[in-house]
Amino acid sequence: MSSFEEAETEETVTCLHLTFYHPGQGEKMMFRCLDFCRREQVRADDTAKFGRDSSLCRYSLVDTRVSRIQFSLQFYRKLHSSEYGFEIKNLSKKTKLTVNQTELGYLNKIDLPWKCIICFGDYQILAEIQEGEAVDYFETHLHLAEAPILQERCLPSLQPVPENGISPSFPLCQGKSPTEIDENEL
After folding, report:
1. Secretion signal: which residues (predicted)?
2. Which of 9, 51, 85, 141 would suit a FRET pair with 127, their CA atoms being 20 to 30 Å apart?
């Protein structure tokens, strides 16, 4: 047998991708303590804390408007399942945290959806969970966004113009999906 055949099966690792944005990040450098270059392993029994106090938080934001501990993420295994997830808890007494429009007050917690936007103050964080099988640890991979994560859902300038050059009189983003019409029916 070759060494390839005898090698242990490689397990995949759950990775939490976090993309950070703040409108003042260029001049205030509030993300300077975060490592955007590589994935970081976090033990499964550790709580990943985000906030201003670098002695208490694994992920430190350099901003006096951020709470000492803003929020935490806890990795867990779902009951009666082989699936893993994350729980997010607001640890700020002064600032509410929103997760996809769900507002969390102090000590409120919810399961983190597989893809969501976390907001507090002017901060926007896109969280995306990449599923894995490892039980002893998970990984985080931090990214920096150049543009706001939250954008307008409906941009009128992006409406398509039909081949006949006549723009429709109704906006396409009113919840109606476009219908295909044969050009001979016009």
Report:
1. none
2. 9
Place of tokens 């990449």: 130
Rg value, the chain, Cα: 22
110: β partners: 88
Single out the residue of 21, 9, 8, 13 nearest to residue 149, CA to CA.
Answer: 21
Q: What are phi and psi of 119, to 5 degrees?
A: -130, 145
Residue whose entry in the numeric block shows the structure tokens 């607001």: 90
What is the identity of the amino acid at 181?
Answer: I
Instruction: Report pLDDT digits (tens) over 147-164.
Output: 999 874 333 444 455 555
CATH architecture entry for 15-144? Sandwich (2.60)
Asked if 140 and 39 touch (Cβ cutoff 8 Å), the reply is yes
Q: How far is CA 162 from CA 92, 157, 159, 169, 170, in A?
A: 51, 14, 10, 12, 13
Tell me: the pLDDT tens digits for 96-138? Answer: 999 999 999 999 999 999 999 999 999 999 999 999 888 889 9
